[in-house]
Amino acid sequence: MAHVPLIPIGKPRSEVLDDRSYDEHVRAIGAREEKLAARRKEVHGGWGPKYIERVHKKGKLTARERVDALIDAGSRTFEVGTFVNYGETFGTGDEKVASPGAGVVTCFARVANRWCVIIANDNTVASGSWWPRTPEKIQRAQEMARKLRLPTIYLVDCSGLFLPEQSKSFPGARGAGHIFKMNSLLSAEGVPQIAGVFGDCIAGGGYQPIISDRVYMTEQAYMVIAGAALIKGAKSQKLTSLDIGGPEVHVHASGCADVRVPDDETCLAAIRSDIEKLPSSGADFYRHGMGSVDPREPSRELAGILPADHRETYDALEVLARLCDQSLFWECMPEVGEEIVCGVGRVGGLYAGFVINRQGLVGDPEQPDAVRAAGALYRGGIAKIAAFSRACDADGIPLIWLQDISGFDIGAEAERQGLLAYGSSLIYTNSTNTVPMFTVLLRKASGAGYYAMNGLPYDPVVQLSTMLSRLSVMEGRTLSIATYNTKLDDDFQIVSKDENERRAIEEGMKQVEARIEADMDPFVAARQMDTDEIISLAELRPWLEALVEMAYQSIGHRRIKNPRIWSLHDLRELVSGVR
Q1: Which candidate, 120, 242, 274, 350, has a CA 20 to 30 Å from the CA of 280?
Q2: Contact (Cβ atoms closer than 8 angstroms) between residue 322 and residue 297
């Protein structure tokens, strides 16, 4: 086994933060995470008990009950897209209604001890209709499955588009039809797809399962291009949808489905049986005999280590110490780019690369006696991240990005040093990497720094947000100053002497700041799919364990090198002693 120089990092919490400050941080984040838990429960309830009972009266399970019955006993799901459409209503006039979770459940879960992506229409929300953003949410889950080569399971119970809002979900580049292109790409790339059809599957809902490798239909299921009501109106034929496209037709005549099963439970058992026939995970092979070991410094302490106030600082190594197995870490190239920590640790016994922004003050290599603010990117840090990212891609090591960044350095010196060019090199690297990358917005995710640290526009497999995350071009106060710049002097004071005009400018600046602050709420980002999921800090380590294991599950489609031949060892020698 090659030597990877992992060393202990982190200190006991009592040496990091006094009890009073720690407790204040815990209370501050606790209040926000209570809101997260309440809203998550609200979404999970769909349209409520009345609609759950309606599903049960048909002898069927709800989408979430199907997921629970399908996954391994004692395991949990890692749901993505929970808050898509949260707080929005659709329809017209008095008919406006909410679409919890955009009417579809998408999650990672273990089935027969293999990580899978599950996509399940929520049949308690307008019979599983597709709402605005439902197609995009399904496609996002399909893309996650594609990048990780995870078996994809569709639990289909979909009555087609929510027609009052069809213009928002039917025609665009990521409209409903793109789901079927994603079905095709997954099939072309050898990713297993299995579909269970449980009920009304009309139009797009009927197309969704067809390209899957195996299609099961229950006795209550039907797949039709157009339902009986439409055919009756168009052709004056008196038929039921089951007559047109039930299992009698599609299993025994058309061949559009493979197996007929009596009910939900039998269908789910059959899907599990199929998953068991697939190759098992390669993760244990790549652990090289190592198991998952909890961090020496407890991960539950993250809620007290991270200040809720984004202006307060913390030690990035203390965060890593609460995420990596045994709190062991190899920091790469510490001699350059002090504002960034790059390195390798184990998560769940498997190697992963980490990139995290330091906070506070760091040295300035241009002026040895000076300091400058961390949380921003300077030339050395940008070059270090690019080199580290390239090396991880070459070595097959999944990359975890932990963002708390205010942006790039700015000013005459930054332009003279060519930060635009250094930044474009990093952007190119992240855009062309093929290794799985996962991004976490710890707190600030601002400006071009959000892009450079592999924000969502650069296609991480998953982007997670905490309840502390603040996603924006710039802070509300800064943007209000920029908006009213012509009315302010060099010290950002209002120039006008007219009292009425001064009051109007002050009020305008307050309104701009308040609006930007509201837009930085993580639920806004989650609602419009600018982040994949909001999680509590206590969930971060379990999420990373799951994602890293998923990155190692499939074999043969990317290079996962023995650590003996890592490019990272070469980098270490090349920069050793550099100042």
Answers
A1: 120
A2: yes
